[in-house]
Amino acid sequence: MSISKSICLGMLAVLLCSSFVNDENCHKTTLLTSKVAQEDPEDNSVYLYVENPPKFPGGSNALTNFINRNLKYPQKALENLTQGRVSVSFVVYKDGSISDIKVIKKVKDGLSEEAVRIIKAMPKWKPAVHHGTIVNAKYVLPIDFKLKIS
C-alpha cells in the first residue's frame, strides 16, 4: 500500500462572514462592506466584499499549481492518515502583499500549520479593486488535504 499526497483547492472566493464577526481581532481592523472606496493612500481599511476580489498571479489554475508544487504533507498526518479542509483568512494589501494570516478552520497533525506555511510562501497577489480603486481586502482560502491510498 502506498500513500500519495494530493491537494484539492476549494472555491477560492469563499467569504465566511460569520467567522469575521466572531473574530476576536476584528476590532483592530475596520472591516467594510459597502463604503465607497476613496483614493486615499493612507486609507488602511480592509474590505470584506469588493467588486473585483484579489487574485493570485496567473489565476486559479496557477494558485492550484503553486499549492501542489509547494505542499509538504506533514509526516504525522501521513502516519495518522489525517485529511480535511483547512480554511485560512488573510488580507491582500494594495501592494499585493499578504498579511494577517489566521486559521479559521483547523485540522490536526500539522495540516493547519502547513496551510499557513504555503500562504506565507506565496508571491504578491493582484490586489482587489472596488469602485475603480485598489483596496485592501480580506480573503478566505479553503485548502483540502486528501490522501490517495492505493
UniProtKB/TrEMBL annotation:
Main location: membrane
Classification via Pfam families: TonB_C (PF03544)
Superkingdom classification of source: Bacteria
NCBIfam families cross-referenced by the UniProt entry: tonB_Cterm
Subcellular location: Cell inner membrane
Gene Ontology biological-process entries: protein transport; transmembrane transport
Signal sequence, renumbered to the chain: 1-23
Protein name: TonB C-terminal domain-containing protein
SUPFAM superfamilies in the record: TolA/TonB C-terminal domain
Record-level GO cellular component terms: plasma membrane protein complex
Topology of the protein relative to the lipid bilayer: Single-pass membrane protein
Record-stated family: Belongs to the TonB family.
The TonB C-terminal domain, residue ranges: 58-150
UniProt entry tagged with the keyword Lipid metabolism: no
Keyword Cytoplasm: no
Alphabetic keyword roster: Cell inner membrane, Cell membrane, Membrane, Protein transport, Signal, Transmembrane, Transmembrane helix, Transport
GO MF, one example: energy transducer activity
